[in-house]
Model the fold of this input.
Amino acid sequence: MKVVNLDLTKMPGSILVKPNIRLVGKYIGKGSSVLKTASVFNFKASQSISRIDIRAVLYDQSSFDFDGILRIEKGAIETDTYLSVKCLLIGKESKAKVVPSLEILESSVKAGHGATIGYLNPVELFYLESRGLSRDKAQSLLINAFLKF
Done:
């Protein structure tokens, strides 16, 4: 499956998703940065397999607002797709809002979506610190692992 990177800061309102593709996007929010984006991912080809993975790490007072619609057009039979959006809040005042949706106009498809918004796991931080890593190094390690696809 071919991997294509998305620039989440320049997302078009509509994206035609080609067959057998994985779209990945990362956003790092710092300071008081705000990213609000909405996109429709259109599927028109039959027997198309695709995955869409979005990750956001939010520091300070940054915010992330993402609306993503998977639209499977009539005729796109046997489409298999999934939208995953995961946000990690690092700053005490950082915010995230994620609204994944499905619009399915064909009956023979497999489609789904999921979204999570959370914090670093304190147990994982404690474990890494108990092994001699500083708090900053432990946080950095966990954040880098979160951003890996």
